[in-house]
User: Fold these one by one.
Assistant:
Number 1:
Amino acid sequence: MKFFIDTANLKDIQEAVELGVLDGVTTNPSLMAKEGIRGTDAVMSHYKKICEIVDGDVSAEVIATDYEGIIREGEALAELHPNIVVKVPMIREGVKAIKYFSEKGIKTNCTLIFTAGQALLAAKAGATYVSPFVGRLDDIGADGLQLIQQIVDIFSNYGYPTQVLAASVRHVPHLIQCAELGADVVTCPLSVITGLLNHPLTDKGLATFLADHAKVNG
Ligand code: E4P
């Protein structure tokens, strides 16, 4: 399973790279705004910086919602760096644009997926990734992980090459369950990735080992 980090924060991205387990990055307009990145030039240069840090796919989201606008923005983003994946919302014009990009060999991530039908549509249009939002479904009392299961099963039934990118993954149990269900990728904040390190018995065991070693060796 690939690990993507869901942030536009360069320090967090660098820390995940240094851990040696990062396969890519996802961003969205809210995450860019959180870092105070304003204006097209600043946004483009920030994506370039991310691509220079990470050796893997970097999802950069279009803002346009009309077909021509999505194509224009997507092509400009794709030209920035070979690692860029154009992130397109699950709307009618977005599906048409995904078809166009896939025929041009431009990688896409169809975002804001909340049903299996939406995922199927994006896969048929040739999306490289679909992003079902696990946490946001849980937020409204639905079952985000059940959606991951459905999409993984459907793609496997028909051999779709589209990868299931479990998004809005908020905590360690989410990530582990996505792995059990066979999601190709998870994207989550740095805290979820580093959360995988933790167990109190690991800390306790290490403290005992070091104390016993010190007793004999000083
Ligand atoms: C997906 O690519 C989104 O950026 C993201 O995972 C949304 O997560 P959130 O629901 O925690 O904001």
Note: The mean pLDDT is 98.
Number 2:
Amino acid sequence: MSEIARIILDGKEYELPVITGSENEKAIDISKLRSTTGYITLDPGFKNTGSTESAITFLDGEKGILRYRGYPIEQLAEKASFLEVAYLLIYGDLPNIQELDYFRGSIAQHTLVHEDMKRFFAAYPNGAHPMGMLSAMIASLSTFYPESQNPNRPFKDIELTMHRIIAKLPTLAAQAYKFTMGHPIMYPKNDLSYTANFLNQMFGLPTTNYEVDPVIDDALDKLLILHADHEQNCSASTVRIVGSSQANLYSAISAGIAALWGPLHGGANQAVIEMLEKIKNDGGDLQKWVDKAKDKQDSFRLMGFGHRVYKNFDPRARIIKKAADDVLSKLGVNDPVLEIAKKLEEVALKDEYFVERGLYPNVDFYSGIIYRALGIPTDMFTVMFAIGRLPGWIAQWKEMIENNEPIGRPRQVYVGATVRDYRPLNER
Ligand code: ACO
């Protein structure tokens, strides 16, 4: 017999179905609660609310498990390529050789962006943040492909839009950087790998021959894999909810980029490095900063610590910490900021405040250090995260459309004024 939950409201008992996931996760289905009882549930920040039944990513925050479509993140980070993982997330399983060839080929075919888009870049002020540009550019892409407005077209058309976005996001990201630098843009070279093509567009110049360092190429590929999906996080939920209004995929991804930008989400990787530099420039007194983070009167938080779902450790942070050590030693980089990071981790992990609250370094604590070593400028860190997260957003959007999910529309408990009469201006 299937499980049920019982709830007593105003002395009356109601039964609610219990849903069990494939990893034995339990949820009480409250979707009919309001229509049967008149009550809604209240859960600010959706800390305890499942918004969907999803088959893409499984994570167990207590045990530190993360799997894409059943495959452990550790195996994927070690053995797969980013485009293989992107295919896995979007199509549901790992590609065979022909499928991967088709996918890679299609992505390579669509890397160019319309030349008119250069005019948009030219109009941004000096110092414009690349995340602002990227979000606007992706939304603008929809205007070049008016046929993409309808998300319910045949799969082949939808697939083309997905491939276009995966192909064009690195091009637009690199162009944003080039415009900031005042350098000429580099066009994509489609015989290069996905990551090498991006690095060449970022760091190549028409005047010199830029050789992509395989160590950098590998490290970047691994970072993108680690960021590729993370179930119903802030930006993925944004993508699903925007998409649920039947807005086109470009608009949904643009909204996801905007959500990711915040320092409590993807923007943390930039904030971590800025914080570590601040600590270093302030003399490196780590205890002082840990104490500030604990002080409830002080708005300072240790960036890169804590996670909504990981309360023991972030499995991605473990992989990335090792990768940071490897990359830095292979590249021969001696980064004092990394030393501060290591010591800060030590101090915080011994502190009762952090232990009690389950605050551990998250993926962003170390990703910024690697990006720095790869030569990526700080304000591009969150852009790198966006490139990595893109397949996850697309997979989440696709699942939402295929499940024919209703428009996302939470309710509220109203706590404002009760009814009152309008008073003319001269009587107020
Ligand atoms: N520094 C100091 N205290 C913290 C920190 C931190 N980084 N994170 C959480 N806390 C404290 C809170 O003040 C709160 O304390 P209290 O119980 O005494 O009130 C307690 O820990 C719980 O924190 P919440 O903010 O309620 O936890 P929530 O799950 O809502 O937030 C979040 C998670 C946003 C990630 C938070 O830990 C944070 O702000 N971290 C720093 C930013 C960061 O690194 N974000 C990246 C997340 S990973 C990602 O998006 C890829």
Note: The pocket of acetyl coenzyme *A is lined by residues 45, 264-266, 268, 293, 301-308, 357, 359, 362-364 (CB under 6 Å).
